[in-house]
Task: inverse folding
């Protein structure tokens, strides 16, 4: 397959590009390097020493003899460039990672809120409109989020995107149908992913664009089989208060001797997946496209759920780190349960990497190895969700 990876310089896109290239696919990365500019804006750098994209690509060719192309393009702003790219390159599939993905960054200010909405919604819409205008049958695989569902499901197992409902019908039998699972986003970032869902539903229905939307949980881990081949291929590792995700932050904090920053009571339950399983899921999704447009294929891309305080306890146990309950900067439920159906990927053969296998290795091989690069001042989460959290009132929904 010829595959365009939009956002292929990022934390998920880079290992996905290498994995697909390694599998023999022809891969082209499209990225405007905005994530690297945000690193500069925040004064925060990846814990791991990521190399410039051109050097990464050269290292891939030197190491494996394979080539990955690169087009510097803003998918959200340069519609003509995107259309030209699709018309010229004619990819079989587009994997769309090219969005601003940090919830805390999206909640920092009206500027970052507006940037996140403009960038994410336009990027997704441009991809869909350009595919229709280019008149090509390109399979779109989008990286969405578990967070579109919201996290309070009253014990119900979240189905893969669609909910069976029975609607009362005056005096007649109830109508049985399926609807998109109602969204309940908890940040501007998660809201853009909810808006993406509607764009996908529309373009599938109206233009029969074939779309797979992967509702992904929080990624943990850093490297994959390919990014480990040469240090110049290393993946990024975010640990700062905006972009660092919870488990990787805990691993890094354990490595540098910083008390693990549990928000509030740590009662939030979230879905997780290892970065190596993420790249495999993307491959499985590409290999199993929906046959027709009409309806978006939605898959839950996660392998385990964990409560934040349990994760902190686990990381503390294997590393000796201490735990500190800090005031929650976010507006979110203090406690929630989460049950998720991930049957499709398991049926397609995914064999999950479990926390119990990979966690210690992650602390030793990545977090401790690069601990000397850490800037501890960047650890605290300073993005406050609203006037309540700014006033120090404990978060509750
Ligand atoms: P990232 O910020 O590391 O990578 C995103 C990449 O897209 C960056 O290289 C950035 O430069 C590029 N980009 C952003 N806007 C662009 C634009 N307009 N034009 C061209 N390139 C653009 O993020 P990530 O962690 O790799 O996440 C990728 C996708 O996966 C996101 O859409 C995110 O919502 C989703 N996701 C990530 C996680 C996670 O834990 N990291 C979990 C669930 C879902
Ligand atoms: N948390 C802590 N301490 C920390 C950091 C986070 O307790 O130091 C808590 C947060 O309050 C939250 C939970 O951990 O309750 C998860 O936070 P996170 O930053 O790891 O994850 P989130 O903001 O949801 O975003 C991340 C990715 C996003 C992706 C999402 C998947 O940045 O791109 O969409 O995970 S999901 O959470 O399933 O929606």
Result:
């Amino acid at each position: 397959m010829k595959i365009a990876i939009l956002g292929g310089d990022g934390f998920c896109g880079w290992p996905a590009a290498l994995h697909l290239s390694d599998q023999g696919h022809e891969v082209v990365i499209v990225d405007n390097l905005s994530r690297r500019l945000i690193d500069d804006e925040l004064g925060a750098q990846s814990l791991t020493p990521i190399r410039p994209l051109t050097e990464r690509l050269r290292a891939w060719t030197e190491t494996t003899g394979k080539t990955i192309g690169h087009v510097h393009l803003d998918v959200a702003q340069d519609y003509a460039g995107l259309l030209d790219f699709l018309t010229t390159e004619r990819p079989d599939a587009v994997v769309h990672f090219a969005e601003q993905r940090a919830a805390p960054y999206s909640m920092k200010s009206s500027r970052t809120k507006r940037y996140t909405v403009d960038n994410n919604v336009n990027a997704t819409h441009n991809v869909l409109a350009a595919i229709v205008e280019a008149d090509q049958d390109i399979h779109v695989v989008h990286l969405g989020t578990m967070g579109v569902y919201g996290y309070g499901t009253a014990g119900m197992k979240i189905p893969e995107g669609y909910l069976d409902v029975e609607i009362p019908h005056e005096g007649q039998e109830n109508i049985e149908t399926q609807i998109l699972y109602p969204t309940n986003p908890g940040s501007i970032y998660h809201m853009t992913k909810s808006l993406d869902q509607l764009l996908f539903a529309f373009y599938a229905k109206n233009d029969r664009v074939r779309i797979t939307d992967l509702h992904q949980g929080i990624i943990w881990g850093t490297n994959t089989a390919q990014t480990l081949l040469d240090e110049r291929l290393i993946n990024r590792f975010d640990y700062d208060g905006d972009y660092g995700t919870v488990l990787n932050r805990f691993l890094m904090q354990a490595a540098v001797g910083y008390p693990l920053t549990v928000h509030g009571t740590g009662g939030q339950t979230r879905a997780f997946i290892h970065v190596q399983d993420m790249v495999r899921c993307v491959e499985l999704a590409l290999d199993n496209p929906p046959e027709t447009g009409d309806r978006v294929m939605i898959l839950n891309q996660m392998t385990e759920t964990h409560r934040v305080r349990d994760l902190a306890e686990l990381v503390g146990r294997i590393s000796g780190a201490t735990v500190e309950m800090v005031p929650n900067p976010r507006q979110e439920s203090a406690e929630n349960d989460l049950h998720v159906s991930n049957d499709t990927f398991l049926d397609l053969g995914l064999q999950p990497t479990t926390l119990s296998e990979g966690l210690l290795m992650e602390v030793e091989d990545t977090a401790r190895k690069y601990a000397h690069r850490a800037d501890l001042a960047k650890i605290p989460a300073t993005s406050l969700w609203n006037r309540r959290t700014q006033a120090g009132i404990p978060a509750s929904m």
Notes: The mean pLDDT is 95. The two ends are 45 Å apart (CA to CA). The chain has one domain: 2-238+272-303+341-353.
